[in-house]
């Protein structure tokens, strides 16, 4: 049997976990099934991750790192709050449409964490929230922090909901059309809110 480095084995196990979790759910994704999917000895999974919880955390970290959350504006765009939200939501949904298996695994791991380690699931969302806030702070906005944070949470909820709809019905084109509709609605709201706070 050929030698496989620990780093390579970790990557193989994470990818195998994504496939098993997407297919069977996080609860049914046992370490044995994941090791079999990776064509790796079970002992190597325990060597690399110690337990299932650490492996699922590694899966979430891998997938959340792949999802584009910060998108540079085009040269000719001034970067209003609505435009930044639109870029973020559209790029996130485009990734989900192009990677449904990975999106399903991310949702499964998030729900698993919410059931078994609620603090961990809160940490997952806080990571997205912080990156969103840093990106949105580039906009020239007069919205108070409380309203800006509400807009950020609504944007995340829209992407979550559209993701579940797309994974359920498989209609990728509709998911992108609905994303454009949601972005237009959010931009209209933000334009009105900006006018009212000036």
The largest sheet is: none
Provide the gyration radius in Å. 19 Å
Shape: elongated
Total strands: the figure is: 0
User: What portion of residues belong to β-strands?
Assistant: under 5%
Fraction of residues in H or I helices? over 70%
Query: By helix and strand content, what is the structural category?
Result: mainly alpha
Count of separate DSSP helical elements: 9
**Strand and helix order:** HHHHHHHHH
Mean pLDDT: 88
**Poorly predicted ranges (pLDDT <50, ≥5 residues)?**
none
For the termini, the CA-CA separation is 69 Å
Tell me what you see in this structure:
The protein is built from 9 helices and no strands. Helix 1 (6-24) packs across helix 4 and helix 8 (145-169) packs antiparallel against helix 9 (172-197). The longest helix is centred in the C-terminal third of the chain and has 26 residues, at 172-197. With 198 residues, it is mainly alpha-helical.
Main attributes?
198 residues
Write the layout of secondary structure elements.
Elements: H1 6-24, H2 31-38, H3 42-49, H4 52-66, H5 81-98, H6 100-116, H7 118-136, H8 145-169, H9 172-197
Produce a short descriptive summary.
The chain has 9 helices and no strands. With 198 residues, it is mainly alpha-helical.
């Amino acid at each position: 049997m050929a030698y496989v480095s620990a780093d390579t084995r970790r990557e193989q196990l994470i990818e195998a976990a994504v496939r098993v979790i997407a297919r069977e759910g996080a609860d049914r994704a046992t370490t044995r099934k994941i090791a079999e999917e990776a064509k790796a000895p079970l002992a190597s999974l325990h060597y690399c991750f110690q337990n299932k919880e650490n492996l699922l955390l590694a899966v979430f970290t891998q997938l959340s790192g792949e999802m584009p959350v910060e998108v540079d504006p085009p040269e000719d765009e001034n970067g209003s709050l609505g435009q930044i939200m639109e870029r973020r939501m559209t790029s996130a949904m485009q990734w989900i449409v192009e990677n449904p298996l990975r999106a399903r695994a991310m949702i499964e791991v998030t729900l698993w964490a919410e059931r078994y380690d609620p603090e961990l699931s809160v940490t997952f969302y806080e990571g997205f929230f912080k990156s969103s806030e840093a990106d949105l702070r580039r906009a020239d906005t007069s919205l108070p922090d409380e309203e800006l944070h509400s807009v950020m949470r609504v944007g995340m909820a829209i992407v979550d909901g559209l993701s579940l709809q797309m994974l359920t019905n498989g209609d990728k084109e509709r998911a992108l059309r609905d994303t454009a509709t949601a972005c237009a609605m959010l931009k209209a709201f933000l334009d009105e809110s900006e006018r009212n706070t000036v």
